[in-house]
Structure formats: structure tokens, C-alpha cells
């Protein structure tokens, strides 16, 4: 029987052979991992008021800002937006920031042109 199976390229269906084939197939099975596809997240540092104060003081000194900058609504809004983030915040680089400011500027200029447009039919 085994010679005939080998000669005719036939898989043996005998019970003992089927069990050994099944065991060999299960031994070859292993679940692969996604480790290569996973992007590690940046570790978040827990919030503390002391760390926040130091970050604000460092920002003021490094950028030579007036002390009153922390009282401005736009600064407080930025902190509020950042504090509501569920994951790590990605800050834009200077090119993205410049482009965003330019878009805001031209949008505001368009609004001002519409506001101050005078009809020639008075």
C-alpha cells in the first residue's frame, strides 16, 4: 500500500498516517506576530503642576517672551487644546507653522477686503 501511495503520489488515508500528518501540520503552525508592523508610541510623561510651571518658565526664557504671554487668551487656548488630547501631541515644524499663519493671514485679508468694499453706485 505504501509503495503504491508513493508511486501514485497518493496521500495515505490510514488512521495512523492521518494522525501523524495532522500532528505534523499542527507542529508547523505558529501564529506570526505583528511586531514588525507595530509603531511604538512615544511614552507620555504624567502631568504635574510643577512640570507645567517649569515648561512655561522655560518657554518664556527660551523665546524671550514677555511674562504676560501666559495671560493671553491665545496661549491659554493652546494649553486647553493640548490638555484635551488623548494621545501624544505632534507639534508642527516651522514650515507647517509658517504656511498655516500665511493661510490665516490671506483669509483675514479677504474678509477685510469684503468688509471695506465700497459700492461705486452711491
The assigned structural class equals mainly alpha
Tally of strands: 0
| Distance from first to last alpha carbon | 108 Å
Q: What is the chain-wise order of helices and strands? A: HHHHH
Amount of helix: 55-70%
Give the strand content.
Answer: under 5%
Low-confidence stretches: none
Task: Give the overall shape, derived from the CA principal axes.
Answer: elongated
Explained architecture:
This protein is an all-alpha fold and 122 residues long. It has a domain at 48-88. Helix content is 57%, strand content 0%. The longest helix has 23 residues, at 94-116.
Topology:
Layout: H1 2-7, H2 15-28, H3 49-63, H4 73-83, H5 94-116
Condensed summary:
By secondary structure, the protein is mainly α.
Main features:
elongated, mainly alpha, single chain, 122 residues, 0% strand
Amino acid at each position: 500500500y505504501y509503495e503504491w501511495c508513493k508511486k501514485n503520489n497518493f496521500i495515505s488515508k490510514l488512521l495512523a498516517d492521518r494522525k501523524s500528518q495532522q500532528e505534523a501540520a499542527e507542529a508547523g503552525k505558529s501564529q506570526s506576530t505583528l511586531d514588525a508592523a507595530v509603531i511604538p508610541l512615544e511614552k507620555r510623561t504624567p502631568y504635574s503642576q510643577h512640570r507645567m510651571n517649569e515648561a512655561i518658565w522655560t518657554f518664556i526664557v527660551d523665546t524671550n517672551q514677555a511674562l504676560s504671554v501666559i495671560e493671553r487668551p491665545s496661549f491659554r487656548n493652546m494649553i486647553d487644546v493640548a490638555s484635551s488630547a488623548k494621545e501624544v501631541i505632534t507639534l508642527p515644524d516651522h514650515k507647517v507653522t509658517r504656511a498655516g499663519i500665511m493661510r490665516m493671514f490671506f483669509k483675514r485679508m479677504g474678509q477685510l477686503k469684503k468688509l471695506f468694499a465700497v459700492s461705486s453706485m452711491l
